[in-house]
Every structure is written in structure tokens, then in C-alpha cells.
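Lab notebook, page 48
Experiment: co-folding of the full assembly
Goal: obtain a model of how the components sit together before planning crosslinking
Operator: M.T.
Materials (sequences as entered):
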Amino acid sequence: MSKVLMKGNEAIGAAAIAAGCKYFFGYPITPQSELPEYMSARLPKIGGVYLQAESEVAAINMVYGAAGTGKRVMTSSSSPGIALKQEGISYIAGAELPCVIVNMVRGGPGLGSIQPAQSDYNQATRGGGDGDYKLLVYAPGNIQEMVDLVQLAFDKADYYRNPVMILGDGMMGQMMEPVEFKEMPKMDLPAKDWATTGTQEKRKPNVINSLYLAAEELEQHNIHLQTKYQEMIDKEIMFEEYNMEGAELVIVAYGTTARISKAAVDLLQAQGIHVGLIRPITVWPFPYQAIKDLPESAKNILCVEMSMGQMIDDVRIGNEGQRPIHFVGRSGGMIPTPQLVIDKVKEILNGGK
Amino acid sequence: MLNERIILAGFGGQGIMLMGQLLTQAGMNEEKEVSWLPSYGPEMRGGTANCDVMISDKPIASPIISADATCAIVMNLPSMVKFVPEVEPGGVVLVNSSLIEETVERTDVKVYYIPCNDIANDLGNMKIANMVMLGAYIEIRRSLDPESVLQALESKLGMTKASLMDINRQAFAKGAEAAKLQM
Amino acid sequence: MAVVFQKTKGLTDVETHYCPGCTHGIIHRLVGEVMEELGILGKSIGVAPVGCSVLAYNYFNCDMSEAAHGRAPAVATGIKRILPDNVVFTYQGDGDLASIGTAEIVHAAHRSENITTIFVNNAIYGMTGGQMAPTTLIGQRTTTSPYGRDAATTGMPIKMSEMLAQVPGATFVERVAVNSPANVRKAKRAIKKAFEIQLEGKGFAIVEVLSTCPTNWGMNPVKALRWLEDNLMVYYPLGNFRDYQEVENA
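Observation: model returned without errors.
Model output:
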């Protein structure tokens, strides 16, 4: 199939539909409204449902109900809206329902700004709501990758019976790039015999639920969930390494800041300074091993984020105290420039001067 | 090797975003690597509008221009003040001289003054000032085939507005002529 | 020997956790009987709330989904929009529906979601230990209104049926009680109608059922029924507040 020029937000919608998602429940918030707008135009024409809920809280609970029927369903929002959805996300994870949730992150805390940010990293990678649960979180680096990962996300959500999050930012949502919708390999997925579709009086009732009043039962449920998360850790970690061999410093960045860092890496290389880049594509599970196994040549690590420093904690975990870790970032909707990264790299290589 | 980094800026309603999208689409049709990054004010109408467009032979790393634009297209005075400093030395600035009386003070960039609105007015449609500027840009930079830009516009206009293609072609050609006089 | 009473197929054999004398059991039975009589058990999907009836998913003999507090109408919306040919109902208490879930119930009614809501109003938070509900009466003592509910600081008790009857999308709104055999029969008729409306695709139907909470009211079951008649039924008059026929004729 040929390439088309699409805005990130619209490309997500098109990718979801290509993945067989016909149901979308959402609520408007900048900078992701092009996605619900796109869905509201497309879904009714293919026998699907677009519904604008009365709130993000209602939207995620509609997703809970819809996912319970076994159909592929999606919602999207941006930071404050995702914060509101956390109740429902926890219930969905607890009840083991598949769905895809998109967060096009904007500056926070509170109402924050409408400009791009990465300050929801902790919320996305640590569960976000109450209880011991995890989301599989993809942080695409460009719109093509976002399209590919959205399609993969639906398969993974079904396979693990777990919500999967696409963690983008306002910039990725609003920018345009050429994308190609490729035929994705079909995953072998188990039948959804747990879905609430009516018993037809031929089977026992199915119950979608996250309540376990007996403590020992809830503990068993949590152990079961952890087994699933361990499987994700074993099988799902994705990351990209760039210019790593012989690098004297390694940058760790994801999403938009990884693009900016890649530009900085190229510009530094042209000046004879060898810097590598590790770009986590799954931010949960995080590629700890890649951080642990940096090449001998790398003496320093630099984290670049559009936040005051959140992913840096995961880099610390992976680093296990081996190398000094530095940070440079912008927040509140400000976007770091390649020059900012270059200056920081030079400062570190010059011993902090 | 092509590695064009363009800032397009003006006020809302001048068709700035469309100009950027047409260049991006044309670049894609020519199988170049491209990206289009908008920046809006919070207001929906009448505010400032600018976008960054990358057209390159290599994959686009950062889609953001930061003081390394190869070209700035400024359609009004506030845009000139704000974005001329973003052009790298040796770069190019295209000024809509119909709305901007001031001249660019920098001497390390090449400046072209295109009276976009006057030309559009002479053609009888103020809305095509942006196409005048695109014609001038392509004539000067030759980053893309002029026909790919016009084809991008044709597919954007679609069947319902196909009748507007003629006047847009004229605007594009007049912009190129105006640029030639200064080359 | 002739069978004069038989447990409905609409309920499972699980023993309920409700306190002795609580009228939730009656209301469960009515909903179960209605589903059985309408022959819709095989295609019904119920949504349970948070509150005393949180475990309703164990008692109704159909597919069930347990919602977050107040969100049952949103969950039901998600199910019904995808499975329009199934029957979807919510079973909610007064804290769930009239307090934390007001947005969800109002907007489900507003969209005229083709679902049925059973709203059990016993004027108190039962499961959490007898705290004040939005429907608690003025002067009524609860664990969070120990001196009696005071309108000056907590407002007047909320009349959900009257309120929802003003929503253009609400097709059927009726308040009933389960304090006497006659009223139980009326309650069942209303519940049946609320399901029939859904089967006819006519939109949102809600039945508010005045119920007792002997445990948290601090009364024996008989006295609780008397208190319901003398107090709840006075402030919350029984009757139909909206009917689709009336809507059609309007």
C-alpha cells in the first residue's frame, strides 16, 4: 500500500480501524481531539460506534463495558483526562479486559499547558491507579511507528487481557508524516469465552469483576496478574540502539526527545564526538538490560526528557550504579533543541565545565 | 543532497498551514523524507500560525527547527521579527512585502521581497497570496518540482473546488516571475 | 400438591449476603422473575454497582459486569452500544446513583440509552456502615449526620425520579415501594414495563424502588417498613413521573 500524509492523531484512528477496532468512547481535550473527530467521521460508516461521553470517567467506564463484550475498543485523551481515567483503567486491569488507551501527553501538573510533554511517564509506567497492576506501554518515535504499534497493541491487549497504552505527546499527535498501513502478521489469539454477551441459557453466567472480598483470593489474583506481567517482561521489551559501538557517552530518550537526541547525535558525530542513543520503545516493560550492558567505551549516561526527570529513575535501576547519570530536559510544554543536548553532552565530556 | 528546513509563518487565515502541507505532500510524492509540524496559538482564528517543514533525502531526525532553518517564509511583520533569527547563516528569507514595509537587517542571509497580496489582488483573489509565495519559493529554492506542488494542491482542492486550480496556477507562476526578477 | 411458589430461574442458588429483613432480596426476586417471564435471561447482561448490592453479580442468573462506584450507566452504555440486541440493566443504590454517579445516570437518561435501571433508595449508605446518603431525610440520624440531617449544611434530600423526569431522553420514570404485597405487585409491574420498553427499543427506563435498611436505620424489619411508609413515602411519593406514551403524545 502506498504512503499517505497524515496527522499523528488521525493516523492512530486509521491504524485502530485497520486493527479491527470499531468502537471508540472519548471526550474532547487538546491536543488529541483530532483522534475522536476522526473516529466520529469514520466509525459510523463501517458499522461501528463513536460515542462522546459526558466525561473521561464515563468514557473509560464505557470502554470497560464494551471491552467486556469481547470487542476491540479504544479511548484516547491527554494528561489531565488520563488522570481522570485512572479509576477505570485500574478496574479494566483488575478485571483483565483488553483495550487500547492513547495518551497524547501535554504539560502538567493540573490543567498545565496544551503543549507537548513527557511528564506522565511515571503515571503510565507505574500503573497509574490503585493496586498492583501494569499496562503494556508503547512510546512510538514517529508516526509510522505509532501506526505499527497501535495495530500491535490490539493484539497484545487481547493476548494478555490487559490494557495497552500508546504514550505519545502533543507534538506527535499534531505533526504530519507519511505513513504506510502494512499488512500486519496475524497473532494466534485465544477465544474470548469470558465475554459478557448473554448466556443464551446454554452456559453459566460470565462475570466481569475486579472485586475479591476474600484476601487470600485477591492475593491469588494478584499473583496471577504478576505472572502475566512477568511474561510481558520476558517477551515484549522493545528498544532501538543507535550509533552505540564505541560511543563515549550514551543518551537515553524515548518518543519525541529521542528524535531530537538523534539529531544531536548526528550533529555531534559530524564534529567528531561519538555519542550513542538508546531509545526505549516499550517504556513498560523497560529495557533495563540494555542500560546495564552499555559498551565499555561509554563512561556517562545522559537522559533527555520533556519533564523534570521521570524516566531517569528507570535508567538508574538499569544502570545499577555503574556510570554517572546526567539529565537535561525541558518541561511545561517546552521542547528541548538538539543544541541543548549537544551543549549538555559537551559539558559532561569536558568534566562538567 | 537535499536537506531543506523551512519555517512558514503568518497570521491565522493566510493559509500558512496549507502552504506547509502542500510542500510536505509534494515532497512525499517525490519520495523524499518529509515532516510537517504545526504550532498554533490557543485561539482558533486570527492568531499567529506557523509550521516547520522538513524535506530531506535522509530520514528526519528532529522535525523541529531550532535556529537552523534553511529558509523562512514570513507573511506578516510579527513573523519576520520572530523567525528571521531562526535562519542559519547563508539561508534564505522570503518576505511578503505587501504587508511588511520593513527590510531584513541581517546581511548573512539572502532576502527576497515578494508582494504576494498585491499580485493576488491583481489576479482578483486575495486568498491566493499564499500560492504566489509558494511559486516564488520553488523558483528560488528548486527543492521540489513545481508540478508536484501544484498536483498536491489539485488533490487537496478535490473535485468540488477544481475550478479554482486555474487561478492558483496563475498565482504560482506570478510568484515565480517576481522571484526571478530578484535572482 | 400444587406449586404455589417457586424460586425464579432469574436468580442463582447462591445464598445472598443481605441482612435479615432487608428488601433487596424482594427487589432481586422481582427483577429475576421479570427476566424469566419475558424470556430474556439468555440475552440479559446486568451491571452491578458499588454498595450493598455490589455482589448482585453472584445472584442474577445472567451475564454480569461489576462497575466502579456510580459508573454502572456508563458501563451499561458501553455494553448496549455494542450489543444492541441484548438486554442491559443496571442495579444501583442511592449512594451509587444519586451521589457519586449523578453525571452518569443523568447522561444515560439524556442520551436515552436503551437500558433499564433499577434504583434502590433506602436513604442511607448501607455497606459502608450507615452514612448519610443524598436521599437521607431531614432529621434522619446516620453515622455521618449524628445530630440528624440538617438542610442548612447538607441540602434537601435529592428526588432523583422527579429530576430525571425532566430529562427529555428519559422514556419511563416510576417510583415504587416494596413495603406491602400490593406495592410489591405494583413494583413488579413497573419493573416489567421498564424492561419491555427496552425490548421495544424505546429508550431509557428507570424504576426507583423505596427500600428499607433495618440494620442501619436501627429498627426491626417490621418497624422499618412502618418507618418507610410514614417517612420515605411521604417525602418520596410513589407514582409514575414519565411514560413514553405520554412522551409520544406530547
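Interpretation: Chain B touches chain A at residues 21, 24-25, 28, 34-38, 42, 60-64, 66-67 (CB under 8 Å).
Next step: discuss with group before ordering constructs.
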